[in-house]
Each structure stands twice: as structure tokens, then as C-alpha cells.
Amino acid sequence: MVIIQVVVGGLLLGAIYALFSSGLTLIWGMMNFINFAHGEFVMLGMYVALLTVTWIGGGPAVFGIAAACALFVLGVGIYLSLIRHVMRGPMLAQILSTFGLALLLRYTAFWIFSANFVSLPQTSLGGTLKIAGIFLPVAQLVAGAVAITLTIGLHLLLTRTTVGSKLLAVAEDRAAAMLMGIRPDRMQALAWGLSAGAAGIAGALMATAYPWSPSVGETFGLIAFVVVALGGFGSVLGSLYAGLIIGLIQAASAFWLGAIYKDIVVYGLFVALLWLRPQGLMGKA
Amino acid sequence: MRGRVGWGLLAAGLLLYPMLLTGPFYRDIGVTFLLAAISASAWNIVGGYAGQVSVGHSMFFGLGAYTPLLLYTLWGWPPLAGIPFGMALSVALALGIGMPTFRLTGHYFSMATIAVAELIRIFFGTWDLVGAAIGLQGPAVARSVWDLTFRSELPYYYIFLAVLAVLLLLTSALERRRFGFYLRAIKASERAAKSLGVPVRQTKMQALALSAAFTSVAGSLYVIKTGFIDPDSAFGILISVQMVIVAALGGAGTLFGPLLGALVLIPLQTATNSWFGGGGSGLTYILYGGIIVVIARFDPGGLFDLWHRVLPTLRKLFGSRAHAA
Fold first, then answer.
1. Which residues lie closer than 8 Å to B187 by C-beta, 6 or more apart?
2. What are the angstrom distances between the C-alpha of A114 and each of A5, A50, A206, A209, B287?
3. A281 falls in which pLDDT band (50, 70, 90)?
4. Please, what is the Cα angle at B74 between B68 and B75, to 5 degrees?
5. How far apart are alpha carbons B259 and A253 in whole angstroms?
6. What is the pLDDT of residues B94-115, one digit of tens each?
7. How far apart are CA A208 and CA A45, in angstroms?
8. Strands, DSSP E only, in chain B?
9. Are A250 and A266 a contacting pair, CB within 8 Å?
10. How do residues A224-265 score in pLDDT, each as one tens digit?
């Protein structure tokens, strides 16, 4: 019974990992660009949810959408003001731009919100279900289900719609896409908006079930790297599977080895992946 | 000729600094400045010259810091004797990271460095042999001069200065040799370098190993001076951040860039820490983040590059005024 509990808990958390990691993989696939501030986007999504609940009130639907919208705007803004100017510059500028951004966002959050852990006030998703002997907090269940739905939605958006085709066209060949009347700049801005929006809503979902502090951004950023490395850079579906696997591994190692080892195991897996299969599970070499 | 004079003036300034500005405050800044300049110059070999941006160099700094104190705690060795072992461990780790990631694009290397540094930090925080979260202590009182435990900052200043001099002389020698040209070719375009027969992976590995070895020495020097180490002050992300920002601010891939960066940043850091007070050190990191973003967006070449770009404009202004007169 306990094992089922661990497995279900891991999968539900993994679903949220999958959602925010799919944002990171989208940017990598589109522009060969790694966003070191992605974990900070998730962290900001959590605080947007908290501020929405305190100032405006409303349920998970309200603060979830608020977090997605706020982060979408932030993502587009960051692309237009920063990324667009460094993406074809030297490697140093590419890496420093988002790395500096991560520090800026993380320590600004520390400054404004302090280092204390906070959690959302009890939402309409409070309570626990007991199904077949396992305890499932409703908030975790809903958050996990919504996260999986949104990740699949993002995958479908990329593979089944015109907008998705345009995004992929820009990723494939910028010049050819321009000749087809697609504006690469607009598409890349959209990709950054979607990526940050996914992180924001993942943060809001996570906030319903777990407490947090500004330092979680660093952890989530690294977890997103591991998920994307496992799933294959650029594959949303890959990061869905990988997210679930990482959630599972984390829950299992926290259970059998102790909570402090869960991150060690996951980062160790990342290093092992780089050695053994750098293209990931679903990635093309 | 002008270069020689510049070298001479710089050397004289650094040698005389503790004589001109006495008092513990200035000496402390001087020592901090030298340590920052050493670490950033070491980072610069792989991050600047080779263009392989490490954001986890604290792993080498931390190994350099932990190894001497571990050997002291276990067998009572003087910390000085631990330095080569720290260097060896760091080089081994560097090879372990470089071998898989240097086959891939530069982003993988950056991601791997940050993940491994964080992995080691958490791991050391749980490992009892190295004192877990509390860390390790060095000799409290000097048993002999080999413990390098001094009351005054002055001996540390000159030891650090000597190490910096060795590092800069080595870098400047490498800059002019085939190795230096290889590095710049790789930074400009890996593919082009490879097609011209540059042994790309091997050269990147050598740069990383050399960089790791000297970063490790910086960690050892830090710990010999402070006498204790814990996971955060060894492997924390802010240790890596400081190396990156100091080198990039002055000019990554230039010999004196890290020195210039440290010259600007360390006094600035001291000032902001005292303005904002102890609790406001977070504001210093907000400032760091802001500086890094601004460098990346507007001036990836750093202050040296800015100077070279501004100089012609200044000359023109100056020249036109001379005409008017």
C-alpha cells in the first residue's frame, strides 16, 4: 500500500515537472537556447498565485489563469527586450543573459517576499480522498491532472495547429519560414510567452499542494534540465514521459534513501545521462 | 613598450598597495580583491579564452578548499600540503565533466557544470567525513610556519599576489603560443577550427583542466586564510557567480579583464554591503544579476571592449575641439 502511495505521489508531482519542463524544451527546440531562469519563472508563478489569492480572491481557476497570463507577458517581454538581442551573439552573452536574469529574479523575490516558506490559504481543493487504501490530497490530484492535460495540449498545439506549424517552421529554417510569410520574431516571442506561461501555471498548480520559498526556483530549474535531458531536447512529449519518470524516481529515493538524497539522485541521473545518452530518450542525436 | 610600462605600473601598484593604505579594512579588501582576481583569471582560461562558459566553477574552488582541511583533520597535515591533492581531484573532476559534454554544444557544458556543482554541494552537506552541513576547521594556532596561520593580513596579501602573478604570466605565455591560438579559434567557430585541424576536444579539455587546477588553488588559499569551510561557502552558486561576473565585467578572454573586473567589483561589493547593511546582502546579488544581464545585452566584451569602442569617439570629440581652437 505504501509503495502505491509513493508511486502515485511521485507521478502527480512528475506531471507538474513535465508541464514546466515542456516550456524549457520548447525554447531549446525552437532556438537552440537554454533558459537558466526557467525555474525562476515557476517560482514567480507561485507568488503570482499567492498575490492573486490575497488581493483578489477566487479559486484555483482564477489564480491559475492569472499566473499563466502574468508569466506569458513576462516571457514575451524578456524575449523582446533581452533574448532577441543576444540569441545570435557570442555564447557568453547567450548564457549570461538568462543566468543573470535568474539571479535578478531570485534575489528580487528574496528581497520582496523574504526567505520564509509560504503556502496558499486553504483553497476549495482542500481535503483528502481515500481510494482503495491510499490517501490522495485533492489539490495534488487536480494539479497533476491539469498539468498532464496542459502538457498534452501544448504537444497538440505544436503538432496539430497552424500556429504550431509556424512555430516549427521557424525552428526548422528561419529564412525559409520568412519566405513563407511567417514572421520569425513574432513566433519566437510567442514561444517565449508559451514557455513562461507553462512555467507560471505549473507554479500556480504546485502552489495549491506544496509550500515554497524563493529558493525553489534554483531546484526547479535544475529539475527541468534533467527532465529535458532525459526526454530529449526539443520534444514536448518526451518531457511528459521524462517528467513522470523523474517525479517517480524522486519520490522513490525520498522514500527509501531519505528526503535529502532525492535531489542528489536526480542530479546524478543527469550526469549519467550526459555520459550515456546525451540525446535523451526520445531525442534525435 | 607601452605594454611594459603598464605591467610595471600595475606590479608596482599591487606591491606597494598594503604599504600605502595600511589598516585592516584596506588590507582585507586587498586580500579579497586578489582572491577574486585569481579565481576569475582561472575561470577565464576556459570561460573566456575557450568560450566554454562554466557556471559551476565553485566545484573546483570547493574541492580546493575542502581537501587541505580534510587531510589536516584526518592526519594533521599542514594545509599547504593538501593543495596538490585538491588540484589533482579538481583536474580529475574536470576531465569527468569535459569528456561527455565537450562532444556536444556549449550549452550542455554550462548545464552540466551548474548541475554537478549543486550535486556536490548537497552531497557534502550530508557527508559526515567532511563535517556535513557544519564543514571543516583548520589549525586554530600555527604549529609551525608551514601552517601559514598568521595574525596579520600582510603575508596572505603577498602570497596571493605571487600566485596571481604566476597565473597571469602563464596565461600570457599561453596566449602567444599555439595553444592560445587554438583557444581563440575554437571560441570564434568550433566547426571552422575543426576543419582547419585544431584538436578541438583535446584543447578544450586542456583548458578546462588548467582552469580547474588554478581555481582549486584559489579555494585552497581561501581556506588557508579563513581556517574553515562549509558546503555553501565552498560550492554555493554565488561562488561561481562571482568568478563569472568578475571576468565578464572586465573582459572575458583578455589577460587583464579579470583583474579590472575585480578592481571595479570588489570595492563596489564592499560598499553595497555596508550601505545596505548585513541583512541587505541580497541587494548585492540583485545588483550582480543586473550587471550580468546588462553585460550580456549591451557589452559582452566587458569594460576593456567598451573602452576600445568609446575611445575613437572620444578622440574624434577631442580632435574636433583641437581644430576649433
1. A90, B49, B50, B51, B253
2. 33, 14, 19, 21, 17
3. low
4. 85
5. 45
6. 999 998 888 877 788 888 899 9
7. 11
8. 136-137, 228-229
9. yes
10. 999 998 888 778 999 999 999 999 999 999 999 888 888 889
Distance from CA of B173 to the nearest CA of A (A): 24
Question: What own/partner pairs with CB < 8 Å and gap ≥ 24 does B265-268 have?
Answer: B265/B36, B266/B29, B266/B32, B266/B33, B266/B36, B267/B29, B267/B33
Give the integer Cα–Cα distance in Å for A201 and B72: 50
A147 vs B148 pLDDT, higher one: A147
Q: Does the distance separating the beta carbons of A278 and B300 come in below 8 Å?
A: no
Contacts of B296 in chain A (CB under 8 A): 82, 86, 89, 92-94, 96-97, 100
> How far apart are the C-alpha atoms of B305 and B19, rounded to whole Å?
32
A96 contacts B53? CB cut-off 8 A: yes
If 0-12 CB within 10 Å is exposed, 13-18 middle and 19+ buried, where does residue B137 land?
middle
Is residue B42 classed exposed, middle or buried when 0-12, 13-18 and 19+ CB atoms within 10 A define those classes? buried
Beta strands in A54-190 (DSSP E): 128-131, 134-137
Q: Which residues pair with A135 in a beta bridge?
A: A130
Taking an 8 Å cut-off on Cβ atoms, the answer to whether B106 and A264 are in contact is no
pLDDT digit string, tens, across residues B32-53: 999 999 999 999 999 999 989 9
pLDDT digits (tens, 9 = 90+) for B267-320: 888 887 777 765 556 788 888 899 999 999 988 888 888 888 888 888 887 765
ipTM of the complex: 0.88
pTM of the predicted model as reported, rounded to 2 decimal places: 0.90
